[in-house]
Structures are given as C-alpha cells and as structure tokens.
Amino acid sequence: MTTGTVTLAPLRHADVPRCHEIELALFPGDDPWSENAFRTELDNGNYYIGAYADDELIGYAGLAAGEYEASVHTIAVVGHWQGRGVGKMLLRDLLARVDEINVPVYLEVRTDNEPAIALYLAHGFERLGLRRRYYQPSGADAYTMGRPAHSV
Q1: With contact defined as beta carbons under 8 Å apart, do 48 and 15 qualify?
Q2: Torsion-angle region of residue 76: left (phi > 0), alpha (psi -120 to 50) or beta?
Q3: pLDDT tens track, the chain, 152 positions
Q4: Parallel, antiparallel, or unpaired: how do β-strands 105-110 and 126-135 relate?
Q5: Which pLDDT belongs to residue 121?
Q6: Residue 28 contacts by C-beta under 8 Å, 6 or more apart in sequence?
Q7: What are the E-state strand segments in the chain?
Q8: pLDDT of residue 1
C-alpha cells in the first residue's frame, strides 16, 4: 500500500532481512545482495539510509565515503513506490552527506535503467564510461557515472 508519509532514517541491522527481500524482488536476473553483504556494509561504518512508510522499509541507499571520493553502493525502492520521489529523496540524502566532505562521487548503473540514469543526470552526474557485462549473471552493461565535488 502506498499511503502515509515517507521518512528517512538510518538503516538498522533489524532491516537487513527486508533489504534482502527487496533485492530478490528487484534484481532476480542478477546477483542480489545477501543479508551478510548488508550486515558487512553496516558493520564497516558505511552510510546507509532507509525510506520508511507506515513503519515499513520501502527503500534504502548506501554510500562509502573516503577522504578523496565517495561511491554510491546501492539505491533501491520497492516496485509499487517507484516513480513517487522516494529514490530522489534517498539520492539527495546521500549527496548531502557527500557535499559535507566536498568530494566527487561515483556510481554504476545499468545502461537500460533509464529512470535511474535520468535521476542521476538531473543531480549533476555525467556518464564517464561503460563497463561491459558488469552485472552478473545477466551480463548487463553498466555506465560509470560521476559528479564533481560540491561544497556546502
């Protein structure tokens, strides 16, 4: 159901099973992240945010940031919430975090994911290159995209 207000909050270990469920639903032809992968990201101190509606996790995003650059590791929104601005909220939250440390940010996105590509282009990303057969086992290609540092 798509009622209620969407709020963002830090992703918790208790959310990991739901993250994995979302991965399985969204990425069936590729290698969805395991619960262990999410736990490792959280345990390593990477920045992960969840989008919640009516106390249900409907999306998440993750970022690794260092002294010289940042990398968006994932953004995912459950199917019936896509196209409602949740992905934009998640991306803007990640970019605000990146802008605090004033470093460039990079990501990979499937070349056939036109809504995501449009979102990234609208937020200052450029296509930098092509990674052939990046996603496995489907063999789908990915664009590498980057956005220069923005100071706040």
Answers
A1: no
A2: beta
A3: 344 689 999 999 999 999 999 999 998 878 889 999 999 999 999 999 999 998 899 999 999 999 999 999 999 999 999 999 999 999 999 999 999 999 999 999 999 999 999 999 999 999 999 999 888 888 889 999 999 998 66
A4: unpaired
A5: 97
A6: none
A7: 6-10, 47-53, 56-65, 70-77, 105-110, 126-135, 140-147
A8: 33
Q: What is the largest CA-CA distance in the chain?
A: 41
User: Which domains does the chain carry?
Assistant: 6-147 (3.40.630.30)
Given a contact cutoff of 8 angstroms between Cβ atoms, the answer to whether 73 and 63 are in contact is: yes
CA distance 70 to 149: 10
CA distance 105 to 146: 6
Tokens of 62: 């993750």
Q: Give CA–CA dist 39/47, Å, rounded.
A: 12
How far is it, in rounded angstroms, from Cα 85 to Cα 78?
12
Omega into 17 within 30° of 0, i.e. cis?
no
Place of tokens 């990991």: 16
